Amino acid sequence: xxxxxxxxEFESLPLILNPTIDEAEFDNKPVExxxxxxxxxxxxxxxxxxxxxxxxxxxxxxxxxxxQMFLAHRHERHLxxxxxxxxxxxxxxxxxYQLIAQQYDIKCxxxxxxxxxxxxxxxxxxxxxxxxxxxxxxxxKSKDLSSYQGFVLIDNQGTTSGLVPMxxxxxxxxxxxxxxxNLQGDLKSEFVDIRPDVRATATIFTQYLQMGLLxxxxxxxxxxxCATALMHGLRSDTNRLMQAQEEDFMAAAYLSKFYDAQxxxxxxxxxxxxxxxxxxxxxxxxxxxxxxxxxxxVGYLRYDDRDAxxxxxxxxxxxxxxHTAVVYGIVHDEDDELEVVIGSLRTSKLTxxxxxxxxxxxxxxxxxxxxxxxxxxxxxxxxxxGFLSGSNENSAYAKMKWEVFDxxxxxxxxxxxxxxxxxxxxx
Length: 427
Known about the structure:
Elements: E1 38-40, H1 49-72, E2 77-81, H2 88-102, E3 107-112, H3 119-128, E4 132-134, H4 137-141, E5 150-154, H5 164-169, E6 174-179, E7 191-194, H6 201-210, H7 221-237, H8 246-255, H9 261-268, H10 274-286, E8 288-290, E9 293-302, H11 308-316, E10 324-333, E11 338-347, H12 354-362, E12 372-375, E13 378-384, H13 395-417
Parallel strand pairs: 1-7, 2-3, 2-5, 3-4, 5-6, 6-7, 9-10
Antiparallel strand pairs: 8-9, 10-11, 11-13, 12-13
Helix pairs in contact: 2-6, 2-7, 3-9, 6-7, 6-8, 7-8, 10-11, 12-13
């Protein structure tokens, strides 16, 4: 969903980069671009210096557009909305945005509706002091939103946040969208920077920093911690840099001058909880393997354990003769009395597009919104259970409900994985 899923590693390895590339000297002449212009841009098949020049030109152009947007909104207060279950890429990019905005006397509150359940995300926020706040849907109703003049979407396009419809309902305008996922729909925003060919939103924000929107200073503790968070976000969304492209490596080289390697290592060494290990064990027990796909339903999970699902998928995809793993379960939110089927996909197969696979498997809801999507090597889906939510006090009913959803999800997946052999036959 861009998805309410975090990209994690089964093995946590510390990363220490020694920069070998000097900063290029950039032409700081402003580029006049209309603020309302929206562009969806990325790399083409060019190579060598032409790619680097194009990336530099684009980064310079978008940085100047963003600078003009900040100038037009001085002294305001904005909401920075993340996906319901933010990952390190979203968290770090939002923090960088907040620090940039402060230079224009713009106050930003970074918010998300879900929870931080992955141990690395919890460690990242606690160890760096990253200023993200959880606002549940119930909490939002009690907030005075009249003090906000705009809202911002970072590492998402509004399709994976339950907060966006409520913010739009009270008339707060969308000002900024910065993301690296595929375009989800028509966006009416003053500033849009969507680059599907960039591996991490943290890379985009590092380019903003390189263009001078914020001059990092290694003597400022907050700058060091933000650079560390950006390094973690970049590393996470590029699968430990194994799927990084030239601009990602350039961004990492720049961040290596400022980040704290020991702090990053502490984040990466955060231990899994027993409940996460139990879910991984359940996925091993329940998995079926067909045509190199490993598919596992893990039953019911507490809301706070939701990030165990992508970690189980990370683990299953490492099995011999498996190139793709899909793990899913029913997540229960006691606060809002809601249940949602949440799933994660991980793949090492270069020719499998997670975004296309998930969208084809699960389709859209009645409003035309896809239940899931993805990017290189990873994806996720989220299917509200609606009328069938709750009533799990009756164990027999809860078991029957899980069996129905488990069978339906397997049916939709196996229709693509093994279409001739695995469709449920009608009598």
